[in-house]
Amino acid sequence: MDAQQQRAAATRPQGGGGGGGRDSTANFTVLLSFIAIFALVLIPSSSILKNSFDILHQVPEGHVGVYWQGGALLNTITNPGFHLKMPLITHFEPIQVTLQTDLVRDIPCGTKGGVMINFAKIEVVNRLKKDYVYETLLNYGVDYDNTWIYDKIHHEINQFCSAHSLQQVYIDMFDQIDEKMKDALQADCTRYAPGIEIISVRVTKPSIPDSIRRNFQHMEEERTKVLIAIEKQMVAEKEAETQKKIAISEAQKNAHVSKIQMEQKLMEKESARRQEEIANAMYMAREQSLADASFYRTMKEAEANKLMLTPEYLELKFIEAIANNSKIFFGNKVPNMVFDQRLLGNFFQDMVRKENMES
């Protein structure tokens, strides 16, 4: 029995050692399998771990590749395409350098009068300049837009609301908020983060309390009624002005027609006057011609009579006159009378002779 117990004791450690080795190998295999399954499940669900384990990575178009090594930002910037890096040591992130729109939601603010309003959505179109990627990420990290866009827009909206009344924010100056926000964001970005360019800001209409909104709607209705009344008045004025212009145009037309008719009558009168002047001139010319002819005839007759007034002719006429006289004179003075008549004839003869000599 002792010999058998000794042989059993001698053979037992050898058998036990072989079983322990097999158990260790099986445990190591199970551990590796668990690690592999854990890596297959966990790594695809985490972009950070995936980027850390990847050797070949891709930078999409519109982005640049930025790298960290041991938590320190490298000044290496890669362009779109495939690139290589050290796994687990170098971390990679794509940074967009094209236009992007950051949407800021639910921005409460209080107006100058103490009314709380809420901007449901504000869109900020911005771009990170490629040359300033390293500087911007070095100072403000990958989430630089949280500092200079999301948080900044909250601050600027509250500043604007606190300086203006509800009437100004909701109605009067609402169309100016976009430009004011853009200018405010760009001013600070230019000063502290020059790589960020603010392209535009789009602000939606804020929501206000229902009671105030109803008052604004009532005011808008009244304003619309006033505008309608003003438009009606303007239409009436335009119609009156049109009627006035039509009347003036009609009067001017009538005056122009009257002027033309008057000018036509004056031209007719002028034509008649000229015709009368021509007729008068013709009559005067005719009468002058007749007078000249009569004068010429008279002158010729006078000249003929002068030629006929000879002493012999006068004596003949004298004798004819005496012969035709039915009165008979008696007495001593009859010869004297005859002699006197002869003297008269001699007188006329001398006169004719003198005239002939003078001419």
Automatic annotation (TrEMBL):
SUPFAM superfamilies: Band 7/SPFH domain
Membrane protein topology class: Single-pass type II membrane protein
Spans through the membrane: 25-43
Similarity annotation: Belongs to the band 7/mec-2 family.
Keywords linked to the UniProt accession: Endoplasmic reticulum, Glycoprotein, Membrane, Signal-anchor, Transmembrane, Transmembrane helix
Main location: endoplasmic reticulum
Name of the featured protein: Band 7 domain-containing protein
Residue ranges constituting the Band domain according to the UniProt record: 54-220
Species for this entry: Ilex paraguariensis
Gene Ontology CC entries for this record: endoplasmic reticulum membrane
Location in the cell: Endoplasmic reticulum membrane
Biased composition (Low complexity): 1-13
Annotated spans, Disordered: 1-22
Highest taxon of the lineage: Eukaryota
